[in-house]
Amino acid sequence: MTTRILWTALLMLSSVSACKPTEHMMNRQNIDWQSLEFTCVKAQTPPLDKEADEWFLTARILQKKDEYRHAEEIARLYKIAAERGHYKAIRNLAGLYVDGVGVEQDEREAVRLTERLIEMGVSDGYYNMGVFLQDGTGVKQDRKAGLTYFRKAADMGNPHAQLVIGKKLMAIDDQELRPKVLPIAEAMLHCALSQDIAAAGYELGGYYAINKKDFANSLKAYQAAAKLGHAMSFYTLKEVFRNGKYGQDKDEQRAACYARLEGEADEDNTKKFPTLDRICPLPPKPMPKA
C-alpha cells in the first residue's frame, strides 16, 4: 500500500480504543457538513525542510520496495523527519502506528500525530481525524463528528474529503433537501476530480447519467476518470459502446479500445492514460486509423 493514512479505499479501519478526542481542535457546532456554501480550492501545505524531505523520500522508496522488510528503518526515517515538522512524514507515521508497522501499534499515538497536523493547519489532519471518528480508531466513535471533520477538510481543499462529502450529499434522499445539496455535491466532486481523484469522475459519471440524463457530461466524466487510470470507468465506457447505451450507437472498435486499456488499468493501478482522447476519443471524434 502506498500512503496508508490516506485510505482512499475509503476507510475500513477497526478499533477497540475509546479515548475522548480533544475538543479544542475546532468548534464542531459552527461547521455544518451539509452547508450550501463551497468554494473549490487546493489545499495549502507548510514548507518542507530540505533535509527532512530527503529522509521522507528515502522512506517512501523503501516503502515501495518492501514495506515490511524495511519497516523499522521506514519508521525511523519518518520519526526524524516528523521532528522537523515534515507534515507528510507525520501523516505517514500516524499510519504506521495505526497498523503497527515498524512500531508498536498505538492508535492513541496516531491520534496525537493527527492532532499535530490539525494544529499545523494541514487538511490531511482534519481528513484523518474524520476517519478515526468514523471508525473509532483511537477515539470514541462519533460518525456525525467525523462528517464535520471531513467537511472542514473538504473546505480546506482536501480532495479525499471532497469525495467523501460529495458522495454523502448525493446519497441524501430527503426530497426537500436533495435539490439544495446536489449542486454542492457536484461542485465537490468536480473539485476532487480536478485534483486527480479518479473515483470522483466515476461518481460524477453515474450522477449525470442517472439523475440528470445528461449523457454527454456523463461520458466526459467517465473519460476524465479513465485518464487517471480508473478501471471501472474504462469498463463503463466499454459497455456503453458495446451495447449502444447513453444515446450512443454500438461501436465495437471503440469498445475494444476501452477494453484493452481496461486490462492495462487492472494490471497496474498506478498507470495513467493522459493521451486517452487520442487513443480512444469520445464521439463525435473518429477513432484513429489502425
List the helices and strands and how they pair.
Blueprint: H1 50-66, H2 71-83, H3 87-99, H4 107-119, H5 123-135, H6 143-155, H7 159-170, H8 178-194, H9 198-211, H10 215-227, H11 231-243, H12 252-267, H13 276-279
Descriptive notes:
Residues about 1-25 have low confidence and may be disordered. It is built from 13 helices and no strands. With about 290 residues, the protein is an all-alpha fold. It starts with about 50 loop residues before the first helix and ends in an 11-residue tail after the last helix. Helix content is about 60%, strand content about 0%. The protein folds into two domains: about 5-155, Serine Threonine Protein Phosphatase 5, Tetratricopeptide repeat (Alpha Horseshoe), CATH 1.25.40.10; about 195-290, no CATH class. Helix 2 (about 70-85) packs across helix 3. The chain is globular, with a radius of gyration of 21 Å.
